[in-house]
Every structure is written in C-alpha cells, then in structure tokens.
Amino acid sequence: MTPPERSVAERVVFAALLGVGLPIALIALVLVTAAVFPGLASGSYGWLALLDALWEHGPWVALPIAWPLLRALRIRPAWAAAALAAICLHGLWTMDSPGMNLIVLGGAIAFPLAVLGTDERAHWSVRAGVAAVVVAIYLA
Fold first, then answer.
1. Where is the chain membrane-spanning (predicted)?
2. Which domain holds residue 80?
C-alpha cells in the first residue's frame, strides 16, 4: 500500500526544512572534522578555511544527499527537485558577497523553488515563474 501523496504546501514546507538542514549539517561536519583532525583546521583562519573549501562544492554535494532525502519525504520527482535545488543553491552561493545568512538560509529558498518548479501538476505559469526566479538569481 502506497502512502497518500502530500499536498503542495506540505511538500514546500518539508523542502524548506531540508534546505535549511543541509547547510547546518555541513557546518556541523566541518566543526566535527576540525575537532577530530585539528591539523586540517590549522592556519590563520582555522576551521573557516576548511568550511570555505567544503562550501565551494556544497551545492553539488547536496544533490546526491538531497535526492534520497526528498524521496523519503515523498516529494516527487525527487531527482529533478534535487537537481534544480542544486542549480539554485549554486546561483545563490556564487553571488558577489552572499553573506552567511543567505548561505545558510539559501536552501530555504532553493528547495521550495525546486519543488514548485518540478511539480508535475503545477500550472505552466508557476513553472515559468520559478524559471524566471532562477534566471534572476544568476543575473543578480
């Protein structure tokens, strides 16, 4: 027996929570890594240099991690939503100076946008609006 499908609002909320949770998990991973392997976090910037090195590839690391998590949350199509979220995250994180708030909360923007943009039942205008927002993120 398959579980009932979630409403659009539920999928958007769960995607936003996942989008906030992934960067926080990355920061926690960096802090644990810096504590377990103090030699990696040496230098003038300490663990911030390690965080910067990991953050550069964060959106693309989020893709294979988010896919099964979105699927477990019954957000379909999970692979398309994860791919679009990674593209949005890359655009947000490569802005001129995004700041730590936008980096941490960027997932709360990218994942709900991705869910709305990949929803098969969404009206074409919703998908076009999401595409326009993604383009605007890269042009900003």
1. 12-41, 47-70, 77-93, 99-117
2. 8-139
Q: Closest Cα to residue 69, out of 22, 119, 126?
A: 22
**Domain-embedded: residue 2:** no
Q: Is residue 75 part of a domain?
A: yes
Residue 90 lies in a domain: yes
Q: Are 130 and 85 in contact (CB under 8 A)?
A: no
Phi, psi of 5 (to 5 degrees): -75, 150
Count of Cβ atoms closer than 10 Å to residue 87 Cβ: 20
**Token pair belonging to 37:** 């392997």
Q: Which of 129, 123, 130 is nearest to 80 (CA)?
A: 130
pTM: 0.82
Residue 3 included in any domain: no
pLDDT in tens, the chain (140 residues): 666 677 888 999 999 999 999 888 877 887 787 778 777 666 666 667 767 766 677 777 778 888 899 999 888 889 999 999 989 888 888 876 667 777 778 889 999 999 999 988 888 999 999 999 999 988 87
